[in-house]
Amino acid sequence: MPKIVVFSGAGLSAESGIPTFRGSGGLWEGHRIEDVATPVGWMRNQQLVLDFYAQRFVQMQQCQPNPAHLAIAQLAAKFDVVCITQNIDTLLEKAGVKNVWHLHGRIDCHKCEWHFGIPPMDAEWQCDYRGAMEKPVQFSDLCPKCGKQLRPDVVWFGEAVDMRVDDLYQMVSLVDVFIVIGTSATVYPAANLLKFFQNVPEKYFVDPNPNYQALNDFTVFQGSASEYMPSLVTSLTTKFC
C-alpha cells in the first residue's frame, strides 16, 4: 500500500464558500489582518477578535465538502494518506478523512489565551489547555485549567505553526506520492514542505496559479481543486490497485 501525503491550502476549500485568508488590501472579510489574527490584535480588543471568529465558526459550520474534499476522502479510504492542511476548517473531516494535521489550528476548537504566552508573561509558565467546542467562544468563557480567557485554537501571525518536525522526519522516507493543492507554496514555514518532500518519487501540484519556478519536478495541473482532484485520485487508484 503506497503512503500518500496531501498538503492543502485555502484553494482546496474556496469552492465550498470559504474565502481565502488574504483579500485585496490585506483585509480578511473586511477586517485588517493585524486586528483579528495577531496577538497584538487580541490584546487590543478581545471582543472584536471573538466576534470575528464566531462569525467564521458559523460560516464554516454551514459549508459542505466539495468534490476535491470527497476525492481525497476516497483516496484515504483505499491508501495510507496523511492530510497536512493550512486550513482551519474541518471540511476534510466532514468528507470522511480521518488523518488530518492542521498546521494553523481548527476553528471548532479553543485553547487558553496563555497557551502561547498571551498576554506577555513568564515563558516558563504557559497553560497547555486545548479543547473542542460546539459553539463559538464568548467573552468570559474561561479556561477550566487556569481560569484565563479562552480563545480560538487558531495560529495567528507571530505564533508558532504546528510543524511536528519529528513526525515529518519519520514519515519522509516512506512517502510514495506527494500532492499539493490550492496553495501558493511560497509562505514559510509551510513552504518548506515542498523542499522536505522533494525526493518523493511522484509529486503533483494543483492550483489555478502555480509558481512554476518552484515546481520543476512536479506534475502540474493548472486549475481548481474540484476540477482536477477527482481525476487524479482515479488515476492513482487505478495505478496502485
Outline the structure in words:
The chain starts with a strand and ends with a helix. The chain has a 6-stranded parallel sheet with strand order 5-4-1-9-10-11. Helices cover 32% and strands 21% of the residues. It has 241 residues and is α/β, with parallel strands linked by helices. It is built from 9 helices and 11 strands. The model has no long low-confidence stretch (mean pLDDT 89). The chain is globular and about 55 Å long. It has helices spanning 10-13, 33-36, 39-44, 46-62, 67-78, 91-95, 165-172, 192-196, 225-240, and strands at residues 3-8, 27-28, 31-32, 80-85, 100-102, 105-112, 130-132, 150-154, 177-181, 202-207, 219-222. It folds into 2 domains: 1-17 and 65-104 and 160-241, TPP-binding domain (Rossmann fold), CATH 3.40.50; 19-62 and 106-154, SIR2/SIRT2 'Small Domain' (2-Layer Sandwich). Helix 5 (67-78) packs parallel to helix 9.
